[in-house]
Amino acid sequence: MSQHIRKIFSLGDIKYSWILLLSTVLFGLSNYLDRIYSNDPIWVHASYWISFTIAVLWGAINYICHVHLNNMYKNQDDIKSYVNQLAMNEEDKLELQTYLEDFKKDLMEQGNTEADATREAIKQFKVKEILSLSKNTMFFNLHAHYYLIGWTIVSVIASILFWLLEFTLIPYTLITHTLISVLMAYSIGLFGLFFLYKIIDAVIYQRFKELF
User: What would the mean pLDDT of 149-155 be, rounded to a whole number?
Assistant: First the structure.
């Protein structure tokens, strides 16, 4: 598996997924009830807006959480955090972490403090091949959010599977219609959020240039 595919399908990089799941479930219920009632009650419209608001809230929290985590990574004082943000399989991560820990131990035996030894171990291993595996952008080490593309792909594939299921086995059911609608709506939202995050990164970068 190439490093780009690993970055895209690092689905676990999403933060506070339970908030997004809450929004998804509420949107699904709203969509289902919307199909039942011919004249939509006001509370159905309200639940749509609440689900949308929760999704927006999650988008903000998810971005802020990644900024916070990557600021911690920028300090280069945690070997495990450094290794975890690389697009590698678990076995390679464990091997690299063990190597860095051993290197750190050798530096400490030479008289370096633990913090200095950790930073030096990470610094010495930041070669081009390893840097290319980082799931972060170069600027401020902000997360590149490739996982949003991965979740978009997963959502689209799931919606296609449900459509095929509806088309072949259980045609025209409210549940499959609802599931397809939810998956397509949130796949579009996640794909759009990827570009929104990039715009926010660009704004931060422009602001940084103006200040410094």
Answer: 93
Instruction: Give 16's DSSP letter.
Output: S
* Segment 125-136, tens digit of pLDDT: 665 445 545 555
Distance CA 204, CA 142 (A): 10
The distance from CA 9 to its chain's CA centroid, rounded to whole angstroms, is: 9
CA distances from 17 to 41, 65, 102, 142, 152 (A): 29, 12, 35, 19, 14
- Helix, strand or coil, per DSSP, at residue 190: helix
Tokens describing residue 69: 């985590």
By the 10 Å C-beta count (0-12 exposed, 13-18 middle, 19+ buried), 17 is classed as middle
Q: How far is CA 69 from the centre of its chain?
A: 12
User: For residue 4, what are the CA distances in angstroms to 8, 33, 34?
Assistant: 6, 40, 40
**Which is it for the CA torsion 193, 194, 197, 203, positive or negative?**
negative
87-124 residue pLDDT tens: 666 777 787 778 888 878 887 888 877 777 777 777 76
Q: What is the pLDDT of residue 169?
A: 73
Give the mean pLDDT of the chain. Answer: 79
Q: Tell me how far apart the alpha carbons of residues 200 and 208 are, in angstroms, rounded to a whole number.
A: 12
Q: Residue 134 carries which DSSP code?
A: B
Calpha distance 91→26 (Å, rounded): 39
Length of the chain in residues, anyone? 212
Cα(190)–Cα(183) distance, integer angstroms: 10
